[in-house]
UniProtKB/TrEMBL annotation:
Alphabetical list of Pfam families matching this protein: Tad (PF13400)
Species of origin: Methylobacterium hispanicum
Protein name (Swiss-Prot/TrEMBL): Putative Flp pilus-assembly TadG-like N-terminal domain-containing protein
Coiled-coil blocks: none
This protein's UniProt keywords: Membrane, Transmembrane, Transmembrane helix
Annotated TM spans: 35-54
Record InterPro entries: Tad_N (IPR028087), vWFA_dom_sf (IPR036465)
Domain Putative Flp pilus-assembly TadG-like N-terminal: 33-75
UniProt superkingdom: Bacteria
Length: 439
């Protein structure tokens, strides 16, 4: 009889799976739930990472727009034609920034702080902002907003207020024909004379048969005409180059042995341009007196007329310039005594001829007035005994002495065939460059 308590080999194996197969079966039954759980656990950070990427993208786009807005607000102030930044201007910058920021979706500005940069020589503005931008999926993680901040700054040199005083030689020698070709034509139509003398009849009426009118009828251009055109162009350049409202003012004088103010100091440059049309050649005297170029009278008058030069930062404290245009030889009434009689020749009791004495300009320089000089070169007349006796001995000193009168860098010489207009433009450019403030 078999032992019922001891299983037989066949009974022991009946109905049982191998150990490895059972483990695989149980794993197969559990796989669906575990994978789902694992996927769920991995999906959440992936989802939040994707949401964060979207939110950071929105934040960066909003910041770019706000940075552009603050740049525009700052530059809008710096570009204004003024040397001062007022509280109203700061309010305007704030209003402009807030208006631009309101166009950015989901953004709330929390601060905008514009601060002028202190300084005398420069105009500057710094501004900062802070803001928030709403999130999307970040809100599920209790991060409803993301912060943004930015800043912008701009700085420029102050533009300076300048008064220009023009002192223009209109003595008879400025009736010289303007170029070699004009000189040749003038001699041809005026019996060998290169100068367009401007005369009055004995009754005070215009002498229409003088060389001045002969030149006009024959289209001979004179130095005085070129000077007139150059002044008109100077005014145009001043108008177009202003970076402040009413930045430049001008006053204009002509001189021979007498001095005439064509227009008083004004910021209405259109009026100055109109007045430049009055620049004309002085009349020669019937008694043939030639002492009609009085430097010392003219410079002394301008020294008394022009106030001391200022800083140029405000309209009440402008920098002041004298633009002095001349052919460089004074032939003047003596007026008691000359400052340097050894430099020239006393022709008779009331006539003195010489180059300029630079000391004449020193009193003006002592007032910090800058002097710009355009030398329209004196025409040598070697076939003239008077010229050879009284001008030729100092002809090589005319230009250097005028240069000594001028402020450094503000002297320009124009030859017979040269361009007075170009020299005037160069002087104006050099004048502006010479007064730029630097720290």
């Amino acid at each position: 009889m078999p032992d019922l308590l001891t299983p037989s080999p066949q009974r022991a194996g009946a109905g049982r799976r191998p150990r490895g197969q059972g483990l695989l079966a149980r794993l197969a039954q559990a796989r669906g739930g575990q994978v789902a759980l694992t996927f769920a656990l991995l999906a959440m950070p992936i989802l939040f990472a994707a949401g964060a990427a979207v939110d950071y993208g929105r934040r960066n786009a909003a910041k770019a727009q706000l940075d552009a807005a603050i740049d525009a607000a700052v530059l809008g102030i710096i570009a204004r034609k003024t040397n001062t930044i007022t509280a109203d201007m700061l309010d305007s910058a704030r209003a402009q920034f807030m208006a631009d920021a309101a166009k950015v979706p989901g953004v709330t500005v929390t601060s905008f702080v514009p601060v002028p940069i202190p300084g005398v020589s420069q105009v500057g503005l710094n501004a900062t902002y802070t803001a928030t931008v709403r999130t999307t999926l970040g809100n599920l993680m209790k991060v409803p907003t993301m912060g943004i901040s930015g800043q912008s700054g701009s700085l420029r040199n102050v533009a300076q207020y300048i008064d220009f005083y023009l002192l223009l030689d209109n003595s008879p020698s400025m009736g010289l024909a303007a170029t070699a070709a004009d000189i040749s034509n003038m001699k041809r139509v005026a019996g060998g004379c290169a100068f367009a003398c401007h005369l009055l009849n004995s009754n005070g009426t215009e002498n229409t048969n003088d060389n001045y009118n002969i030149a006009k009828r024959n289209n001979v251009k004179l130095r005085i005409q070129v000077l007139r055109d150059a002044v008109a162009n100077l005014v145009d350049s001043a108008k177009s180059s202003m970076s402040l409202i009413q930045q430049f003012r001008m006053e204009m004088w002509t001189f021979s042995d007498i001095q005439t103010r064509l227009i008083q100091l004004t910021n209405n440059l259109d009026q100055v341009r109109t007045a430049s049309g009055q620049i004309d050649l002085a009349y020669s005297y019937q008694d043939q007196r030639d002492n009609q170029t009085a430097f010392e009278r003219a410079i002394a008058k301008m020294t008394a007329t022009i106030p001391a030069s200022g800083t140029g930062v405000t309209p009440l404290d402008p920098i002041r310039f004298l633009f002095f245009v001349t052919d460089g030889v004074q032939d003047t009434p003596i007026d008691g005594k000359m400052s340097n009689q050894s430099a020239g020749f006393k022709i008779n009791g009331n006539r003195f001829i010489s180059a300029i004495n630079p000391d004449t300009c020193q009193a003006m320089k002592n007032k910090n007035i800058k002097i710009g000089v355009i030398y329209t070169q004196y025409l040598p007349l070697y076939d003239n005994d008077f010229y050879n006796a009284y001008v030729k001995p100092f002809e090589n000193k005319i230009g250097p002495l005028l240069s000594d009168c001028a402020t450094d860098g503000l002297y320009f010489s124009v030859t017979t065939n040269g361009d007075i207009n170009q020299a005037m433009q160069q002087l104006f450019t050099a004048a502006l460059s010479s007064v730029r403030i630097t720290n």
